[in-house]
Design brief:
The chain has ten helices and twelve strands. The chain has about 280 residues and is an alpha/beta fold.
């Protein structure tokens, strides 16, 4: 059925009523394929490590099991567009992450993942030439990661109009390539200071950033309160990061989980038990 508006799709209502829809295809739990998502955290929490490990898990089921163990059901190609870190740092992170993987998983990642180093190139998602370049680079990708949001535009982060424009470009990439787009972003300093990084409203800048994204995850370093709750010393709490989902339009919100920093900062799930008389229990998942 031909749409009236140019470039749009018109639903065939008879077909929709008489035919069961296909099962929803989630790239990550709660994060629907072909949509835009965000992972937000304070600086140095580990969101770039999380994004790298997530990318590896999308590339390889065995890599997902060995790293974040998110239960990713379908694998495919991933493109990471990193606008803020030098190649030497990305080399080290990838090397450290691969030390946790069996050889077959590494081979799948070599085949399915590409990391583009864009530090110093002043990428601009609003520029037509950049858009064409990104579309060429992401053909066939299941997931595209932009690290971080602020590196990809020169607009007013606090303007709903400006941020709606940016997220509209991400949606265009989803539409043209069929991939999911995940961007990394920061939370406001005030919310981070108050330990409220798990709230939707913690995301820094205009409300449109969270409102227009269809999925949002959060990360937060262990607080003094949680350290006491789980029997972790104040000098060791930097090793633990809480994570979860606080906006999942097409699925159930992911529950809070704990990750532990390992070699080089790589994050591995850990099962922390609340402290009892015998002390806290800690088991890697």
């Amino acid at each position: 059925m031909q749409a009236i508006l140019e470039g749009t799709t018109q639903l065939n209502l008879r077909y929709c009523a008489e035919n069961e829809p296909e099962k929803l295809d989630f790239v990550l739990p709660g994060f629907l394929s072909g949509t835009v998502g965000c992972i937000a955290a304070a600086g140095s929490t580990g969101k770039s490590f999380w994004a790298l490990e997530t990318a590896m898990g999308v590339c390889s089921r065995e890599a997902d099991k060995a790293l974040l163990n998110m239960g990713i059901e379908k694998n495919g190609k991933v493109v990471i567009l990193n606008g803020e870190d030098p190649a030497s740092i990305l080399h080290r992170r990838f090397h450290d992450a691969c030390s946790f993987l069996p050889k077959p998983a590494r081979e799948e990642i070599y085949e399915n993942m590409r990391i583009e180093v864009l530090m110093g190139t002043m990428p601009n998602i609003l520029d037509g030439k950049w858009q064409k370049s990104i579309l060429r680079a992401t053909v066939g990708a299941r997931l595209v990661i932009f690290d971080t949001l602020t590196r990809w535009h020169q607009l007013d982060e606090n303007s709903n109009g400006d941020m709606s424009r940016v997220l509209s470009i991400f949606e265009m990439i989803c539409r043209e390539t069929g991939s999911a787009v995940l961007f990394l972003h920061h939370v406001s300093k005030g919310m981070a200071k108050d330990g409220r990084q798990d709230e939707q409203q913690a995301t820094r800048g205009a409300a449109a950033i969270t409102d227009n994204a269809r999925w949002q995850g959060w990360m937060q370093s262990m607080s003094e309160k949680d350290a006491a709750l789980y029997g972790v010393s104040n000098t060791d709490r930097w090793r633990y990061v809480a994570t979860g989902g606080n906006k999942e339009n097409y699925g159930e919100a992911s529950p809070k989980a704990w990750l532990e920093r390992k070699k080089g900062g790589i994050l591995i799930p850990v099962d922390l038990k609340k402290e009892k008389k015998g002390g806290a229990k800690r088991n890697e998942i």
